């Protein structure tokens, strides 16, 4: 048995090395080639692991429920387009996309979930972790070249939308594979990845909202299945279940609030200060919480956020005048000696600063500066 475990760990390590090479070294490795590696890997695993986990009596019901929940996932996501609007997908359903993405990715997903089911039949915690790591690497390869990781926005998209969301979904896939077989996780995996390659439009949603949705929804599915089918529910106390639900609710609420601030698409937003023009009042690396400007009355001394010459600036209003019915605002940075050149009008004002949070924006500035080099 120990020899078999060593062989399995060795195969996991080899697969991890191949995946890392495909992700960081190879610039244009074929997705079909990855699928071929996974097929060979699965065959080798089956030769070592001859006994597989039994399938739950609820297998069929869970497959149907997960299919319904996966469709609801897509419908909920597209319903956000009513508020945010729609945009064309950066990939369309063509013969080329069918050959280069849809078919090889579908094969990869099917193989991944079968491999996961085989590995998790060992009831080995270390094996579960290794499985998640390798499966996350596969997700990163699937989304490789979709986001330009050489830019800050592309890097954040890769980290959030792909990496963090992949960790959350793979925890769900492990749960499904251990308890209900490979088909439920395969169904959810296929639907939630391939829909954007089949439907020609997609909601124009801020990337962090999409990330949040991808992270939260697997937890929702987990709770639905736990309450519906888990035998542990008859043993677990109501108090424990209520405590877990409250903790999850708090985490989701806080995360949603932070994402709403970052998106700056609602009444309040957050902005990191990247210059020293307001030093003493607001320092470089601080973050300011602001209220969206909706024609509120602005007085002299108010710190505002405005856009001019494609630059976002946080300065204080030091004077204003009414010229032919148009109010001209004159601004200045508290640390600057001179008033800013020219003036701005209300159309340039984006927000009114409410308060600052010291130092919290420094990590973002460090990332930006590293990508400028």
Helix percentage: 55-70%
Which shape, going by the Cα principal axes?
Answer: elongated
Overall residue-averaged pLDDT value: 81
> How many strands, what sense, and barrel or not for the largest sheet?
6 strands, antiparallel
Within the largest sheet, what's the order of strands? Answer: 3-4-8-5-6-7
Structure explained in plain terms:
The chain is 58% helix and 14% strand. The protein has 11 helices and 8 strands. Strand 5 (303-308) and strand 6 (311-323) form a beta hairpin. A 6-stranded antiparallel sheet has the order 3-4-8-5-6-7. A two-stranded antiparallel sheet has the order 1-2. The protein has 2 domains: 2-220, no CATH class; 268-372, Umud Fragment, subunit A, CATH 2.10.109. The protein is elongated. Mean pLDDT is 81; it is low at 232-236. Helix 1 (2-25) packs parallel to helix 6, helix 2 (31-48) runs parallel beside helix 5 and helix 7 runs parallel beside helix 9 (207-229). By secondary structure, the protein is of the alpha+beta class.
Task: Explain the layout of strands and helices.
Layout: H1 2-25, H2 31-48, H3 59-79, H4 81-84, E1 86-88, H5 95-120, H6 125-142, H7 152-180, H8 182-198, E2 201-203, H9 207-229, H10 238-263, E3 268-272, E4 287-292, E5 303-308, E6 311-323, E7 326-332, E8 349-357, H11 362-372
Index terms:
373 residues; alpha+beta; 2 domains; two-stranded antiparallel ribbon
């Amino acid at each position: 048995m120990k020899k078999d475990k060593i062989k399995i760990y060795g195969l996991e390590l080899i697969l991890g090395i191949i995946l890392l090479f495909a992700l960081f070294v190879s610039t244009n490795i074929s997705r079909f080639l990855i699928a071929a590696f996974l097929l060979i890997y699965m065959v080798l695993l089956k030769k070592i692991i001859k006994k597989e986990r039994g399938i739950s009596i609820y297998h069929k019901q869970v497959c149907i429920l997960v299919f319904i929940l996966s469709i609801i996932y897509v419908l909920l996501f597209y319903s956000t387009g009513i508020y945010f609007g729609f945009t064309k997908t950066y990939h369309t359903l063509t013969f080329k996309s069918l050959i280069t993405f849809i078919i090889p990715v579908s094969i990869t997903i099917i193989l991944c979930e079968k491999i996961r089911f085989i590995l998790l039949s060992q009831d080995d915690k270390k094996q579960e972790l290794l499985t998640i790591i390798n499966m996350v690497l596969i997700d990163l390869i699937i989304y490789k070249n979709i986001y330009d990781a050489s830019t800050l926005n592309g890097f954040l998209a890769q980290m959030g939308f792909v990496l963090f969301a992949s960790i959350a979904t793979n925890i769900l896939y492990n749960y499904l594979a251990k308890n209900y077989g490979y088909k439920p996780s395969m169904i959810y995996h296929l639907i939630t990845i391939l829909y954007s390659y089949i439907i020609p439009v997609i909601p124009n949603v801020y990337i962090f909202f999409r990330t949040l949705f991808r992270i939260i929804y697997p937890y929702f599915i987990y709770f639905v299945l736990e309450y519906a089918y888990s035998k542990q529910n008859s043993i677990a106390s109501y108090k424990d279940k209520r405590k877990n639900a409250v903790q999850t609710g708090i985490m989701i609420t806080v995360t949603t609030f932070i994402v709403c601030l970052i998106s700056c698409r609602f009444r309040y937003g957050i902005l990191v200060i990247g210059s020293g023009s307001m030093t003493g009042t607001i320092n470089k690396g601080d973050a300011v919480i602001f209220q969206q400007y909706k024609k509120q009355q602005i007085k002299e001394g108010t710190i505002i956020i405005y856009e001019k010459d494609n630059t976002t600036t946080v300065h204080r209003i030091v004077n204003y005048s009414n010229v032919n019915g148009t109010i001209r605002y004159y601004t200045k940075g508290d640390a600057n000696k001179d008033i800013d050149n020219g003036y701005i009008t209300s159309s340039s004002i984006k927000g009114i600063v409410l308060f600052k949070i010291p130092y919290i924006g420094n990590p973002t500035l460090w990332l930006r500066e590293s990508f400028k080099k």
